[in-house]
Write a structure and sequence with these properties.
By secondary structure, the protein is α+β, with helices and mostly antiparallel strands. The chain has eight helices and 21 strands. The chain has helices at 38-51, 74-80, 113-122, 180-194, 255-264, 283-291, 321-325, 372-380; strands spanning 19-21, 24-29, 35-36, 55-58, 64-66, 95-97, 136-139, 152-156, 161-166, 169-176, 218-219, 234-238, 241-246, 252-254, 268-270, 276-279, 305-307, 334-337, 351-356, 359-362, 365-368. The strands form four sheets. A six-stranded mixed sheet has the order 6-7-8-9-10-11, covered by helices on one side. Helix 1 (38-51) runs antiparallel to helix 5 (255-264) and helix 3 packs parallel to helix 4.
Length: 382
Amino acid sequence: MSIRARVRADACPGVFATHDAADGPLARVRLPGGAVTPAQLRALADAATACGDGDVHLTSRGNVQLRAVIRPGLQSRLSDAGLLPSLTHERVRNVLASPWSGISGGLADVRGLAAALDDAVCARPDLASLPGRFLFAFDDGRGDVAGEAPDVCWIAVSAEEGAVLLAGEDTGVRVSRESAVDALVALAAAFAETRETAWRVGELDDPSTLLLALDFGTRTAPTSWQGAPDDRIGAVQGNDGDAIGAAPRFGQLTATQLRLLADVAEHAVVTPWRTIVLPGVGANARKALAGAGFLTDPADPRLGVSACVGRPGCAKSRADVRADAVRLPGDVRAHVSGCERRCGKPSRSHLDVVAAEGGYRVDGTWVPVEQLGEMAVRKGNT
């Protein structure tokens, strides 16, 4: 029995089941592990231009969204680019992986595990019934994606062994890297079979019952995991050369920016913090990215402020929050929301700025729009 009975169907959007936003249908495209090739970046740019409003938006799960999809052809374009490998499982392909794994830092290289899991999930008809909010993750030991409280997660404790987490909590089960995909698939299948109305593992009375599905691995005392988002910006000395972390403002990319990414990198990784990791690129690429509007300087004050889409894209929003968010100083980390749903809010500590009648509430204190920046500084320093 789930803790919280869901009384409505899961409406998490995909490509076939879009969300009816104020600016038109919204389509969400899954990128397991955030990995995307230059050809796929160009396909997304072409699709956004031909079928939507011309932009692509990064999500808090390392996926992308296209808005105002009112012209036909999106499904065929994505399928041709390999971005829609399963018609039945497209909404359940939610997989995080440490974006810098194998590039810089971490105990284990988890590259390739997301793709292997994606193949395994799509091969299981019973997993097509997973809720669209169910989240898999592979953490290379630094705690970055484990901190996003995924439903099922493997986090490295060494180069070849990892802990199994449920709803972000260590279960005490340890399995090899080689068995990580099998472990997460088995746990997801057990959840799909027993979840009743639950959408997330954390909604179950006793998530540990899912462990009965594992007939391999060892048991030990659970560990408390601590980590933080690895959203590095700027030049990074990688294991195999230079790399760059870049951020589009508010996670929104134009078709031109997407095509530039395709031109400068052999591949890219979209992170759940709306940044992009570009391995194997150097100073010239960084200059080109900065010239195209990407934030590539770790000291850039604009990096501290995030915002939901707001008006006119969302009918529930009380304000054009992205236009108002530029009033906030970047040395204060804040998220600006158009309503109490707080879409896209970061997992780390931040000032909570929510649109209200005639102004905003900053951590609960109402202020007019004109004083938004002043109040943010005051709240951020208390």
